[in-house]
Amino acid sequence: MSTPDQDWRTPEVRRAEAELDASMDAMEEVLRSAQELQDSLRPAEITATEEDIRAIEREAAKPDAPAELRALRAKVEAGDLSWRDVLEGRAYDDPEVRAALEPNLGRMGTTYQLFQEGHTLDEVLEAHRQSQRRNNDDDDDGGENIVLRHDSW
After folding, report:
1. How far is it, in rounded angstroms, from Cα 146 to Cα 127?
2. pLDDT tens for residues 78-134?
3. Where are the alpha helices (DSSP H) in the chain?
4. Whose C-alpha in 30, 38, 104, 145 is 20 to 30 A from the C-alpha of 68?
5. pTM above 0.70?
């Protein structure tokens, strides 16, 4: 039903308005769906188990533990933070925590990239093993330059 102030609208204008309204409704539905998808993809809350905490404590107590991990151990022992805070990500703002964790990020990124390229778990593990063997022979790349070659399968 039209009101007197809408009488000027031609049938074409009314069709265009109807199409615009339908497009706006569709866009709102897409936005709702996208929000639902985004909500469903949020990472689950990370919870460190007692086993995880004991494992990092053991690693930090080793005489050959990296200096950064030993520094974290000192902070935990001083009560400045807890291993649970470190493992669950709450302590990542601490520069010493970042220094201890960031060396592994390159290797994790490489692993992710290999999976994205379609390599199997066995292929990725073998690539890591070969990289580790190369690092033991010539420790120049810190384990970040993993090369996955067909002949390594």
Report:
1. 6
2. 999 999 988 888 888 888 888 887 776 677 777 778 878 888 878 878 887 887 777
3. 11-41, 50-61, 67-77, 83-87, 95-101, 105-116, 121-137
4. 145
5. no
User: How far is 99 from 68, CA to CA, in rounded Å?
Assistant: 6
CB 84 within 8 A of CB 78: no
Phi, psi of 81 (to 5 degrees): -160, 175
What is the identity of the amino acid at 121?
Answer: L
Cβ atoms 118, 112 nearer than 8 A: no
SS3 32: helix
For 62, phi and psi rounded to 5 degrees? -65, 145
Nearest of 111, 101, 100 to residue 144 by alpha carbon? 111
Compute φ and ψ for 34, nearest 5 degrees: -65, -40
CA distance 146 to 111: 9
Residue where the block lists tokens 């060396």: 103
Please give the backbone phi and psi of residue 117, each rounded to the nearest 5 degrees, phi first. Answer: -75, -5
